[in-house]
Design goal:
Elements lengths: L19 H6 L6 H9 L15 H4 L7 H37 L9 E6 L6 E2 L2 H26 L17 H14 L15 H10 L5 H9 L5 E2 L7 E2 L2 E2 L8 H5 L3 H10 L7 E7 L2 E9 L2 E5 L3 H9 L2
Parallel strand pairs: 1-6
Antiparallel strand pairs: 2-3, 4-5, 6-7, 7-8
Helix pairs in contact: 4-11, 5-7, 5-8
Length: 316
Amino acid sequence: MMMITGSSAACVICANPLSMIQAATGLVCANAVCDWKLRAIPADRRCVVCGRPLTNHQCAVRTCEQAHCRRTHLVDRPLAANRARRLAISLQAQKIRLRAARARKIEDADSYRVTIIPKNHDKARPLAKRRRKRFEANLATVIEQTLAHERLVATGAASPPAPLPAIVPPAKALGEVLMQACIECRGFCCRTGGEHAYITQYTIMAYRRAHPQASREEIVASYASHLPSHSLPHGCVFQHAKGCTLPREMRGDTCNRHYCTALKQLTDEVRDIPSPKAFFVATGDYFFGRAVFAAPGFVQLVRNTATEIQRAVDAT
């Protein structure tokens, strides 16, 4: 019978081979000097997962080259921290919901599903001229691409683009509830709209169907007329502090279809309930906003929740 007597691991200080027991319990050999040298290395120059000494290059990411350490530090631990944070917020939100419902004499507080939504805390500023010019240039490019493709389709050199799936709006009652979430969110998902505003060839095709005689200059002018004087600087050019300034029929398909993960989950949970209710708590970018009771035909704001939620998160 073959006996396993060694290990492929080596001491991180002297590089001598480690026995299987040493490799399983530590990073250094039995030499006390090696153990002392490892302990003398500053914490910021050791892997945050396994404790190995780091090279100057490795210090930038705070882990050694082992795939397990990289995955643990860059993926597993942030995900676990985010889950713990969201759980703390959810548990604290349930307490706030119950207390606020009692103060406002709202019955059946438990029927208002706690839903944690993102929060955009950006402040409106004058829309910069460079952003306006970039948007108009991007729009002109999309229009030209759309017109060029239409000419190819007319001559039979290209096929018409496949139609997009029809948009199925939520039921009226659910739509009223979801709208309150978007109001409190202030367009967190719109922050990636930038100077393109998610306007694609499908968007321009839809506009041309409604305005078949419009020239490219008229289309650009029509969209530019809806640009606000003030917008959120880190979001879409049409993102005003009070909502999108672009009419819904002129928005990109992404804008008309997208729901964040929280609202998708809420929709799945209350889809078959005639009168859905939700207790929205807005959070984002390490800031916490107010909460709101939302039901068809009913909205009740709950202010001064940020401090309570912050304390719950800090305790995790």
